[in-house]
Automatic annotation (TrEMBL):
Keyword Zinc: yes
Keyword Metal-binding assigned: yes
EC number, as in UniProt: 5.3.1.17
Provenance organism: Algoriphagus aestuariicola
Cofactor: binding details: Binds 1 zinc ion per subunit.
One protein family per Pfam: KduI
Cofactor(s) this protein cannot do without: Zn(2+)
CDD domains: cupin_KduI_C (cd20491), cupin_KduI_N (cd20294)
Annotated pathway: Glycan metabolism; pectin degradation; 2-dehydro-3-deoxy-D-gluconate from pectin: step 4/5
Record-listed Zn(2+) binding positions: H197, H199, E204, H246
Record's catalysed reaction(s): 5-dehydro-4-deoxy-D-glucuronate = 3-deoxy-D-glycero-2,5-hexodiulosonate
Sequence similarity: Belongs to the KduI family.
Entry protein name: 4-deoxy-L-threo-5-hexosulose-uronate ketol-isomerase
Length: 279
């Protein structure tokens, strides 16, 4: 089988200024991460995060080693976080089976050799994942939205009333460097991560879902004084380098998953940018 994971190289912010719309989409957007009966995605040289999807339809999918890792098995030197954005399903990790419901997360640590993703009974299994290098083994753990650290922010008046579910953060589960969570926009609200921010200590990836076929999200990226927009659809992800803001506004409410890797595990470590300072 051909390698299902492609490589995306790091980009300098000065070079980013010169990119066309097509080049930005080619370098940062992940458009088709759910392929039938396969794991697929991108190996980003931004903190070496792997971003992708797993879509078992009528047969199980194994977490196999990829060419970029030069490893005996996928998690030999890595950790992985998985969030179910489809129907309830099962995942086994070294013989232990976990039932994973819609919008529930599973963290699997370094050293787990055999991970298998099973199709749901409805055949509507969509598993979004982020994987980062790991220096030690942390216990495998399932996290529900009830177990997450939950914060509600914003207001309908500012079109950003939202609930943040911190699923894979150090106050909820032990990880090496990976952090993941989910933000749900309330009906009538469309803005996420506004005021926006950057953080040189870590990169980030966004994945948008719960978006109907006729709606889209305008995702803003780039340095605060040199921003660009990428129009995104349901089940698409985008890579955000440390020097880039990451904010979005949809034509309807939606949900998105954020994932981070880097040297700092402090969720609040952000360099805030006021809306009036953006250009």
């Amino acid at each position: 089988m051909t390698n299902p994971v492609s490589t995306r190289y790091s980009s300098h912010p000065e070079d980013f200024k010169k990119y066309s719309t097509k080049e930005i989409r080619e370098k940062f957007l992940l458009g088709d991460i759910f392929q039938p009966n396969q794991l697929s995605g991108v190996y980003s040289l931004e903190d070496r995060l792997i971003v992708g999807g797993i879509h078992p339809v009528d047969q199980p999918v194994a977490l196999a080693a990829i060419e970029q890792n030069k490893a005996k098995f996928f998690l030999e030197r890595r950790e992985i976080g998985i969030i179910n954005v489809g129907s309830p399903t099962q995942i086994s990790a070294d013989g232990t089976t976990y039932e994973l419901g819609h919008k529930e997360a599973l963290y699997i640590g370094k050293g787990v050799k055999e991970v298998i993703f099973y199709p749901s009974k409805s055949g509507d299994t969509y598993l979004y994942f982020n994987s980062a290098p790991a220096h030690k083994s942390c216990p495998t753990k399932k996290i529900t939205t009830a177990e997450a650290e939950v914060v509600t922010l914003g207001s309908l008046e500012n079109s950003n009333h939202r609930t943040i579910y911190k699923l894979l953060v150090n106050s909820v589960v032990e990880t090496c460097q990976l952090q993941m969570g989910m933000t749900e926009l309330k009906p009538g609200s469309v803005w996420n991560t506004m005021p926006s921010h950057t953080h040189d200590r870590r990169m980030e990836a966004y994945f948008y879902f719960d978006l109907s076929e006729n709606n889209a999200v305008a995702h803003f990226m780039g340095r605060p004084d040199e921003t660009r927009v990428v129009w995104m659809k349901n089940h698409q992800a985008i890579i955000s380098p440390p020097w880039s803001i990451h904010s979005g506004a949809g034509t309807s409410n939606y949900t998105f998953i954020w994932g981070m890797a880097g040297e700092n595990m402090d969720y609040g470590d952000m360099d805030a940018v006021k809306p009036t300072e953006l250009k």
